[in-house]
Amino acid sequence: MNIDMTKIANIILYMLHKQVKALNHKKIELLIFFCELNHLNFCGKKILGETFIKTQRGVKAEVLDELFTLILDEVEFEDEEDDRVFFIQELMDFLEIEIVEKERFKELKFSKLDEDFDETIFTSDELKSIHKVINLYKDTSVRNLSNECFSLEKVRKSENGAIVL
Does residue 34 lie in a domain region? Predict the structure, then answer.
């Protein structure tokens, strides 16, 4: 897995700083998808190295979705050397992650610990992509972000389970 968790944690910190409405794990995945897509379209490469897969309801981040599911399910790891342990710990070095039980589902809510958004770990082009996407979609619901995914031809024409980015 070649994914930059420090950058992901910092993008989530930026989302919190910008007061993204109804920020939960699903919205984070979708906003990161649009950040990666924007950066790939304009700069020819991804910011984080995450892979996105088409689902019935939109897209999901391959690694992040697995990590968020493990946190939601409160999985205990037998192998301390499991990469996922390090990834989750890295997120938790920057963020407090709370499991919120709703009537029909559980979701993750995030809040900032001591660290602030560190823009020095991003290139100026990466920052432009992040600022553009977060400002564009910060008030957009998860449902509307999912619908926005289907406005993309690559997502529409792909089978469920196919890699779209």
Answer: yes
